[in-house]
Each structure stands twice: as structure tokens, then as C-alpha cells.
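Job type: complex structure
Entries:
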Amino acid sequence: GAMRNREEVDATLQTAKLNPAELLPAVHCLSFGPQAGTGECCLLQLEPGLCAELEAGNSLVIRGEKHEQAVLCSKDKTYDMKIADTSNMLLFIPGCKTPEQLKADEASCNIIHSQIAGFSSNYWELRRCRPKLKKLRKLLMEDPYEGPDSQKDQTLAFSKYTTEDFLSLIQASEEEILCHLQVIDACKIEGYWRILEFDYEMKLLNHVTQLIDSESWSFSKVPLRTCLEELGSLEPKEMIEHILLSYGRKYIDDAGEVYFEMREEKICRAIAQMLLQNAVKFNLAEFQEVWQQSVPEGMTTRLDQLKGLALVDKSSRPETILLLKVEDLPEDNQERFNSLFSIREKWTEADITPYIQDLCAEKQTVGALLTKYARSSTQNGVKVYNSRRPIS
Amino acid sequence: EAASLARSEGAGGLAQWVLVELQGEVEPRQSGGLAGSLLGDLHYTREGIPVLIVGHHILYGKVVQLEKPFAVLVKRGAGEPGPAEPRTHYAVTALIKTKLLFKTRPKPIITNVPKKA
């Protein structure tokens, strides 16, 4: 229709019995724009920090395959998306000025024709969530790297993934993905992210620990250069360096030489895994003896090194230990607790903590999780947790 | 499958829009739908109170600074056809930090093209 003019506006004011003297001179004549009813426009409520990110020119990405619930990712955070329904009508209007803006610009024109771009009674709401990273390891485990001598068919390209592939498959921000790749000791081989097959990883580690022993180096000062020289004929240099990065802390001395401080806990843990994966469970005392003998000379094994890797049963006679890796358990909170309670009916907080720690949301404690998903009772004077409902 | 909310290119930063929140639903009076039809006149009193005249109703509201701003997403067309699933791309076209909240709810608001005086 034809645009309203000042006479029409004033006539309406008169009919409405409003005194123009009490109003600012400028009026917005609101009409619906051509796209208004089409639903092409929608609202996303921003959590703190996201507004600033958008204003700084960063993008937000929605990720999720058809069977997954969509998440929104900034460059370093992940959010669940949910529709929030209001009972009201929300109109979004470009070029609509606030009273402050109008007062600041007294010379602005008298009639502002504003087109409503769209309207909705709902909007997307965001809630910060844990990035869904379990799939990352699952994809990498499809084709673990077994070393250059592996007989495996090298043309299975479909099971190899680049960073770009992960960005479209994993429901997490780029930073969370890259951080997790580092945590799980993934490495890039020929442009693809790979995880080492465990036996190959142990073979590499063994080369290094044997060299440390034969050279009588301190565990806190392992020189990269010499490792590459001595072991470079046995394994690819990238792999030697990768195993040092995985199991040591890199530093550079004043002369610019690269050294590694070997991580005792991680090495002992890996060797424990190597021993435990060969049977369902072990006699604890026997295991501890073999374990101590198997680690490099000079390293000391301690059961608390195995948190989240192995579970000790102190109630059985003799006491036993079995392999239980937290990364093999379900990612969803309820499923994780169901799984843990089907493995063991009652848990102490100390025993269960390593297996639920990773479920904690920002500022959430293990105690809060236990309150929500478990029921507590006292057994022999000790507080224990069991399932809230019967496990089928 | 990922849909990216890339920022719209625009001279210097994202546009700032305003949200108007009304009670009830907006219904078109003409059968042709809403596009092009007038909603009403928005005035402000000298004290900064928004006053909306819609048809025969006067609504008084207030200016609210949003604690959580909104981003306005606009759907860009589906992706290229082909073996991959068509992707829906959204672009962030504007930010909304301010809303005009009208709480009074007389009757359903009907759009109207006022007669000339």
C-alpha cells in the first residue's frame, strides 16, 4: 500500500487523543516487509561472550547429523540448542531507533518507514554443554596406525580423517576438537589424523626406554637429537618424536637443544594397560609385582597412577584388579551411571570419581552428579553409592 | 553435516535491530497475507515511553535492554544438489540488544490500513 504521510499520522494521533506536544517529533510507521511471514528469519538468544564474538567478526556453526541433536559452536565452546516458546509475538525491525538515538539526532527526519523483517513466537535458546568428543576417538580407532611395516591395505582412504572432516562430523568447537586430539595423542600422518595402534605405541615406547637405560640418561633429560640419531634407523623419525611428545614434556635448554622430561605416571599407566589387557582380571598382588618389574628401572609404580584405567576389587579374596577404561564407557550421563552400576553394584566416591569426573559440566562437582544420578547409603561405616533404579 | 552462521558482509559490523514484543498474535486483515501491510505507528513520549497505535488500539510499553542479546538468523538457500545432503546455511544478519515490550493485551491485534483523513 501507499506509504503513510504526516497528515495521516497526525490524524491518527488526534483520533487516539494523544497530544503531539508530549511526544518526540519522529514517528516510525511500521509495516510488514516482503519476507516477513515466510519464516526465513529466526532468533537465536546469545549466551555471554557470543555477542562479542559475532561483533568481532567470528562465525558460529551449527553441527549435527540428521540423527543427532544440533549443537552450536563458537571457536572454542559448544552449546545445546533448544526452542523456547513464548506466548508473545516478537517482531524484529531493522532501522528502528530508540528514544536516545532519536534525541541525539534531532535533525532526523520526521517519519521513519520501518519494515518488519520477520516475526516469531519462539527463539533458539543455548545452553553450554560438554563437547561430544567420544566420536572423535571412535573414528580414529577405525584405522589405527600400525607403523610403516604394516601389511594393511594402504588404500583405505575412507577411514582416514582430516581436520576439516572432523569439523563437519564432530559436535564440538574447533578448539575443543584440536585440544582433544592432543589429549589422546593423535598425530598427523600424510595430512590425516591418526591414532597409534597400542602394540605399535608400546614398541616405540620400548625403543625409547631401552635407549634411556643403555645411555644412562636421567628421565628428566632425554635429548631429542640423540634419540633420532640412534632410533631413526628402526622407526620413522616423526614417530620417535611423537612418542617422546606423548610420554614426555618437551623443553629447550639454554643452548637451544630439545629435551624431554619423561612422564613416569603415563609410562607406568601404559605398561599397566599392556599387562591388564591380556586377561579379564588379575590377582592384585601378583599384578603389582609384575608391573613394578616391567616398568623402566628407576620408575616407581603406584596404584593411584591407574585412575580411570583399572578397577581394584578390595572385597574379593584374593584382591583383584581389572582393566576398565573411562574412554570405553558411554558419554551420556545416565548411560554412564547405568554402565558403572552394572559393573559394580556399590561404589565409594573415591572409586567412582575417576569414572565420572569427565561428565562434570562447567562448575559442576562430582558430588552434584552423585546426588543426581545415584543413591547413597552406608555400608560397614563407609559411604557408598548405588543406582537410583533397578538395572535391567 | 554442519551449517555455518557466517557473518553477513556489511560495511563495518553487524546491523543493530530492535525487537518489538506484543501480546497475542498478528493476523492479516487482507487475504493477501502480511507482506506490505501496515502494522501501526510507533511514537515515543518525551520521557522515552514507546507508544504503539495499532488499528484502534493504543499500547504503552517500555524500552528494555536485553540481558541476553539476540542474533537474527536468515536462511540462505539450500546447498548445491549432489550426493551430499543439502545443507542449510544461516547467516547472522543483525544483532538485537534492545526490545520494546508492550504488555497490555486488549484483543487480537488486527492490521489495518487507516482511511485518509
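Summary: Confidence is low (pLDDT under 50) at residues 7-11, 78-87, 107-111 of chain B. The CA atoms of residues 92 and 114 of chain B lie 35 Å apart.
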